[in-house]
Design brief:
636 residues; alpha/beta; Rossmann fold; 2 domains; six-stranded mixed beta sheet; 17% strand; elongated
Length: 636
């Protein structure tokens, strides 16, 4: 489907035990519902044509014969649809009975996949009736046609580039080496599981963990459909616990005992991207498999899944606070190690009253506490110039004082004016030289103070600025250790807010809250009526959009058209489509044009799954051409 999305369904029909004709009607109704909602992979529970709880009735000839008839009825219900449908049933072959999945599409039975691991422990006694399936592929005759029968069968669909589906049944996922692992190593990126997992106290949590962990290790989509109402409750109760997961994340999950069918869109392109980037994901064993080609029409999948507006920031408050503490610790311990190694006597931090320098100063204070160094050995330098406002200068000074750092205030207007005179810069010409001259003067001062005092200059620039190149080369772009280089702007704000909420210092909290309320600005142009005149987001665009673009470009490998599509969905209540497209184009232009600044970044700690260090995650040439990406963006 378009952009790699494909809709999946996990269905739990209400059945009657040992009544395959009735059950087939219920399943057919479920297929019609799922197809009507655009599902292309539809999964029903284990043995749902008969019911899992038939017991010794599985040995009855009449039940097996009627089940085969019910299968053909069910297959007819798929005619005219390109959806791949998996239904559980008992299958007799060569005098043995197998717990199998029948796979159907467009009126045909394509294959039978038998269960590999047959449990006979605790409440289970499946070996009384069923034989374990094996990898060997044998033909099986159904309605006069030969179809493959075996565990090592995959379905390669052409509607989504690279989509390959594998199947396992219930207990298979609980085994030490589940068939799904072998399927995935042989190319499957979607696994379906037809299950009849009974409910006991706490079992749902463990079951969810298995599905999440399996999809994460296999880098796959995982569709789990479990038996529910209608199964015998003589000894067991079945809750219909359905789940759809993708690479360790649950996309949809039913409430137990609610008989809910669930739907979600799997992102096959993202899964393929993730496998490409992981060098330890080594394909193997595909030669053993029977690959059945499956035709699916390519069409646009209607999306119901959500994409967080701030993918770097957890939406749950408890998780967000945990993440903030973790990131602050990574930053702090990174800086602590650098001081232990260099034996530096002090830290020099340029403080502007803005978010980034505030976070850098807070991290430095935490590191000095760990090192058991006096905070007075932190030299906080504020350097007002042409664009500095009273508000930001005051906050910078208050912050340094409440933290306990040594404050130095150095007015650089005169030095910059002399410099402009030396190079022939017109003071009334507010161009790049006018702005960057101030930034470089500040960096020179910080570096020289650090040299005089045997200290390190602590960098303040964040990852979002680096992505956009919104940093003065050899100005704020440079430091001796950049504590914020792995932190995007949207997360910087939450880190400062978290510090304000947990610092247990009323005066510091008030300063931090005012910093959070201050517009983001480099303050390099003169203020208007004492207020900030230069707002970063007016010039380069909203950071929440750019962080969204950055995450889905680098972490997920999405193309511009796909990023635009999901951005329009995520920000539909906040930005017009034209606005999103404008800043998307800006993002790509700046990201490619400014790589030369990232190619010579100072050291700094990686804190998340996206990073821009040329020594780590992003090995990108400084003169890479952006035309492919911009051309697609222009066509939107």
């Amino acid at each position: 489907m378009k952009h790699g999305f494909i809709k999946a369904a996990a269905m739990t029909p209400k059945i009657r035990v040992a009544d395959p004709e009735y059950n087939a009607k219920e399943i057919c109704g479920g297929i019609a519902e799922a197809v009507g909602r655009g599902a292309k992979i539809i999964v029903f529970p284990e043995l749902c044509l008969t019911g899992y709880t038939c017991g010794d009735l599985f040995l009855q000839e009449l039940l097996l014969a009627k089940t085969k008839e019910a299968l053909l009825t069910t297959a007819e219900a798929t005619e005219g649809s390109d959806a791949l449908v998996f239904v559980g049933m008992p299958v007799e072959k060569d005098g043995k009975l197998y717990d199998a999945a029948a796979v159907m599409q467009n009126g045909d039975v394509l294959a039978f996949i038998p269960k590999r691991y047959i449990p006979s422990y605790a409440e289970f006694y499946e070996t009384r009736h069923f034989t374990a399936g094996c990898g060997k592929m044998d033909p099986y005759v159904i309605d006069g046609k030969e179809v493959p029968f075996g565990t090592d069968i995959l379905f390669a669909a052409d509607g989504v580039e690279g989509l390959v589906v594998g199947c396992e049944i219930c207990e298979d996922i609980w085994a030490p080496l589940p068939p799904s692992t072998l399927h995935a190593l042989s190319g499957a990126n979607v696994i379906v599981n037809l299950s009849a997992s009974d409910e006991t106290v706490g079992k749902d949590t463990y079951r969810e963990m298995l599905v999440k962990a399996g999809s994460a290790k296999q880098i796959s989509g995982y569709i789990y459909a479990s038996a529910g109402e209608g199964e015998s409750t003589q000894d067991l109760v079945f809750g219909g616990h359905n789940m759809i997961a993708e690479n360790g994340t649950i996309l949809a999950q039913s409430r137990r005992f609610a008989a809910e069918n669930i739907y979600a869109e799997l992102d096959i392109h993202r899964l393929r991207h993730e496998r490409r980037r992981m060098s330890t994901y080594i394909p193997q064993g595909r030669e053993r498999y029977t690959i059945i080609p499956v035709h699916m029409e390519t069409e646009e999948t209607q999306l119901t899944r959500t994409f967080e507006m701030q993918p770097f920031v957890p939406s749950d408050r408890a998780e967000r606070e945990k993440r903030c503490e973790e990131i602050l610790s990574i930053q702090t311990y990174g800086l602590k190690k650098r001081y232990e190694h260099t034996k530096s006597a002090c830290a020099v931090v340029g403080v502007s009253g803005g978010l980034d320098s505030t976070l850098a100063l807070l991290v430095t204070a935490r590191a000095f506490d760990l090192l058991k160094l006096e905070r007075s050995q932190i030299v906080a330098v504020t350097m007002p110039c042409f664009g500095t406002t009273e508000r930001t200068c005051s906050n910078a000074c208050k912050l340094a004082e409440t933290i306990g750092a040594s404050l130095r205030q150095i007015d650089i207007k005169e030095a910059v004016t002399v410099h402009f005179k030396d190079i022939g810069q017109n003071m009334d010409c507010h161009d790049a030289a006018y702005e960057n001259g101030q930034a470089r003067e500040r960096t020179q001062i910080l570096m020289d103070i650090a040299n005089r005092m045997n200290g390190l200059v602590i960098g303040t620039g964040d990852m979002s600025e680096l992505a956009l190149g919104w940093a003065t080369y050899n100005g704020d772009h440079m430091s001796m250790y950049g504590v914020n280089t792995g932190v995007p702007k949207t997360l910087v704000r939450h880190l400062v807010q978290y510090y304000a909420d947990t610092c247990d210092n009323a005066e510091l909290r008030m300063v931090l809250l005012d910093v959070l309320d201050t517009p983001v600005s480099p303050e390099l142009l003169p203020p208007v009526n004492g207020a900030i005149s230069q707002r970063t987001e007016d010039l380069v665009g909203p950071y929440e959009l750019h962080d969204f673009f950055l995450y889905y470009m680098l972490r997920c490998g999405f193309e511009p058209a796909k990023i635009y599509r999901i951005a329009c969905r995520s920000f539909r209540d906040k930005y017009d489509k034209d606005v999103i497209l404008k800043w998307l184009k800006t993002f790509y232009r700046r990201f490619f044009a400014q790589q030369f600044k990232r190619s010579c970044l100072p050291d700094g700690p990686k804190v998340g799954s996206v990073a821009l260090s040329p020594r780590g995650d992003l090995r990108m040439p400084s003169d890479a051409c952006a035309s492919l990406w911009l051309k697609q963006a222009e066509e939107l």
